[in-house]
Design brief:
The complex is a heterodimer of chains A (298) and B (238). Chain A contains eleven helices and ten strands. Chain A is an alpha/beta fold and 298 residues long. Classes of the chains: A alpha/beta (298), B mainly alpha (238).
Chain lengths: 298, 238
C-alpha cells in the first residue's frame, strides 16, 4: 500500500535564482558562413589578380583576396609560398626591392595603391607594419611612440598621445614609470608590443604583421594575440604566420598559400583557399588545405 | 557568475588578460548548456503534467518545447567543435569541451524522452486515473525532474559535489520506478494490458531522464576534478 504520495505533480522544484535567466542569442552564436556573411564587414583592401615578379622570377600568381574592416586576416602556408610577398604589397614595401614588379589590382578604400599619384610614405602612414623581430628605435620608450607623430606634424599634447597609445597596446601599466628609459630595457614581448604601439601612434587603420610573435615565448605570444583581438575593434589586421595554430586562434579569415612548380622548377606562390577561419580549420574545401593543416604535407 | 577560470589572479592591473576572449567563448558554451538544460527541465515537468493529469491539451506544447533544445544542441555542438579546432584547448579547458559534447548528448536525449512521454499519453488518449498509480507517477516526475534540475545547477555553478552525490540521489528514483512497475503490473487487469505497457514505458522514460541528469552532474565533476566521481560506476551512456 502506498500512502506517502502527493496527489499532484510537485512543481516546487525550481532552479537556483538566476540559473534559468540566461538568454542566449541563438542567431549570434551561429558563426556566419558562406554568402550570408560576405557583406558582414566592408572590404578595406581589395586585391584582385595580384601577380608579383622579382625580375624574371614569378613569385606570386593570381591572388584575389579581400581584406575586410575590423577583421584579422591570416596568411598561412609553407616557406616560399609568397605570403610575406603578398603582405608587403599592401603597403608598397616591395617598392624597396628594385627588381620587384606588381601587377593586378590592390585598392585601399577604392584607391589604387600602385597609382603614380600615390605617395608610398603616405600609404605606410595609413597601413602600418610590425615585423618578426622586435625592432624598437635605440631611443627611450617615450620617443619610440612620439617619433612617428612628430614627423607627421602632430601638434596636440604629445604626452597624452603617448599615454593613450601605450594604453591601447596594453603596455602602459608596465612602462608608465620608465618612459624615459631605453626601449632596449624591455623584454622581447614588451618590445614587440612597443612596436605595435609605435605602429598605431600615427593612427593607421590597417596593421600588417609579419610573423609578429615567432621570436617570442608562448606567454608573450598569447599576449600579442590577445592584443590583436582587442585592436581589431579599431583596426584591420593582416598577419603572416607560419604557426597555423596561431592563425586558428586569432584570425577571422584565413588565406592558405601553396607553391606551384613551374617549368624549369620555378616555384610560384599561389592562393589555394580563402575562407572563414572556422571553415578552413573544420571543413576546408580544398584537399590541399586539408593536407597542410592536418600536417600531411608542407 | 561562475566561470571555468574565475579570477585572473596572475594578471597585474592594466595588463591584458591573456586569452580573455577564449574564456568568454568557453563561458558562452557553459551558459548555453544551462539554458538547454533549463528547457529540458521545463519540458519534463510539462510532460509530467500530461502523464499525471492527462493534460492532452499540453501535448503540442511539449513537442514544440523540444525544438529549441534541438536547436541549441546543434549550435553548441558546432561551437564546441570550432573551439576545439581553433583554440587547441588543454587541461580543464579540454575536459570542459569534451564534457560539453557529452552533456549535449545527454540533454538532447532527455528532451526527446519528454516528448516520448507526451506522445505515449496522446496515443492512449490519456491514462486510466487510478490513484495509486497516479501518485507514484507524480512522485517519479518530481524526483526525476529534481535530479535533472540539480544537474543543470551543477553546470551553472560548476559544482563538482552534485555529481559526487548523484548516484545516491538516483537510488530514490530507481526505488520509485520499481514500485511504480510493480503497482502498474498489479493493476494491469484493471487498467488493461495496453495501458499497463504504455505506463511502464512512461515510467522508464522518467527514470532515464534522471539517469541522464546523473551523467551530466558526473561530467561536471570530471571537468572540475579530472576524474569521474566513482570510477567503478558506469558513467557511460547506457
Amino acid at each position: 500500500m502506498v500512502n506517502d504520495m502527493d496527489d499532484t505533480v510537485d512543481t516546487s522544484v525550481s532552479l537556483a535564482p538566476g540559473t534559468a535567466d540566461f538568454d542566449i542569442d541563438l542567431d549570434a552564436m551561429i558563426a556566419p558562413t558562406g554568402d550570408e556573411a560576405d557583406d558582414a564587414n566592408p572590404v578595406l583592401i581589395d586585391v584582385e589578380d595580384l601577380n608579383v615578379y622579382y625580375g624574371d622570377f614569378h613569385a606570386v600568381k593570381d591572388v584575389t583576396l579581400p581584406v575586410r574592416q575590423n577583421e584579422i586576416t591570416a596568411l598561412i602556408g609553407p616557406s616560399g609560398c609568397g605570403k610575406s610577398t603578398v603582405l608587403r604589397c599592401f603597403n608598397r614595401m616591395n617598392d624597396l626591392i628594385e627588381t620587384a614588379r606588381v601587377e593586378g589590382k590592390v585598392e585601399y578604400h577604392g584607391i589604387d595603391l600602385y597609382s603614380k599619384k600615390v605617395d608610398p610614405v603616405e600609404v605606410r602612414r595609413h597601413i602600418g607594419m610590425v615585423f618578426q623581430k622586435p625592432n624598437p628605435f635605440p631611443k627611450s620608450i617615450y620617443d619610440n611612440i612620439s617619433f612617428g607623430p612628430k614627423i607627421a606634424g602632430y601638434k596636440d599634447n604629445m604626452d597624452d598621445l603617448v599615454e593613450e597609445t601605450l594604453h591601447r597596446a596594453a603596455l602602459w601599466e608596465e612602462v608608465k614609470d620608465k618612459l624615459n628609459e631605453s626601449a632596449y630595457a624591455l623584454s622581447g614581448g614588451q618590445q614587440q608590443r612597443l612596436c605595435i604601439a609605435r605602429a598605431i601612434a600615427t593612427s593607421p587603420d590597417v596593421l600588417l604583421m609579419d610573423e609578429p610573435a615567432s621570436a617570442l615565448d608562448p606567454i608573450a605570444t598569447l599576449r600579442i594575440e590577445e592584443l590583436m583581438y582587442e585592436l581589431k575593434e579599431d583596426y584591420s589586421i593582416v598577419i603572416v604566420t607560419h604557426n597555423m595554430q596561431q592563425a586558428a586562434r586569432v584570425s577571422d579569415r584565413t588565406a592558405f598559400f601553396s607553391i606551384e612548380l613551374g617549368e624549369g622548377g620555378q616555384r610560384t606562390g599561389r592562393l589555394v583557399e580563402f575562407d572563414h577561419t572556422t571553415t578552413i580549420f573544420t571543413n576546408p574545401h580544398e584537399q590541399e588545405t586539408e593536407d597542410y593543416i592536418t600536417g600531411r604535407f608542407g | 557568475m561562475t566561470t571555468l577560470h574565475p579570477d585572473h589572479a596572475h594578471e597585474q592591473q592594466g595588463e591584458i588578460e591573456i586569452r580573455h576572449h577564449f574564456d568568454d567563448e568557453l563561458d558562452e558554451i557553459r551558459r548555453g548548456l544551462v539554458q538547454m538544460g533549463s528547457l529540458v527541465v521545463e519540458n519534463t515537468r510539462r510532460a509530467g503534467e500530461v502523464a499525471v493529469e492527462n493534460r492532452l491539451d499540453l501535448v503540442d506544447a511539449v513537442r514544440a518545447g523540444d525544438q529549441p533544445v534541438n536547436a541549441l544542441y546543434r549550435i553548441l555542438e558546432q561551437r564546441t567543435c570550432e573551439i576545439l579546432a581553433l583554440q587547441q584547448p588543454v587541461a580543464s579547458d579540454l575536459r570542459f569541451l569534451i564534457a560539453a559534447t557529452r552533456i549535449l548528448y545527454e540533454a538532447e536525449r532527455s528532451g526527446d524522452l519528454a516528448v516520448n512521454i507526451a506522445n505515449r499519453v496522446a496515443a492512449q488518449n490519456g491514462f486510466p486515473q487510478l490513484a495509486e498509480i497516479r501518485n507514484l507517477l507524480a512522485r517519479l516526475v518530481t524526483e526525476s525532474t529534481k535530479i535533472f534540475t540539480s544537474a543543470v545547477e551543477a553546470i551553472a555553478n560548476l559544482d563538482p559535489e552534485i555529481g559526487i552525490n548523484a548516484e545516491a540521489a538516483d537510488d530514490v528514483v530507481d526505488d520509485i520506478t520499481e514500485r511504480f512497475f510493480g503497482t502498474v503490473h498489479a493493476h494491469s487487469a484493471e487498467i488493461g494490458l495496453e495501458s499497463a505497457v504504455e505506463l511502464s514505458h512512461v515510467g522508464r522514460f522518467l527514470e532515464r531522464i534522471a539517469d541522464h541528469g546523473v551523467n551530466i552532474s558526473q561530467n561536471v565533476t570530471y571537468v572540475m576534478t579530472g576524474t569521474f566521481p566513482d570510477e567503478d560506476s558506469d558513467h557511460l551512456p547506457e
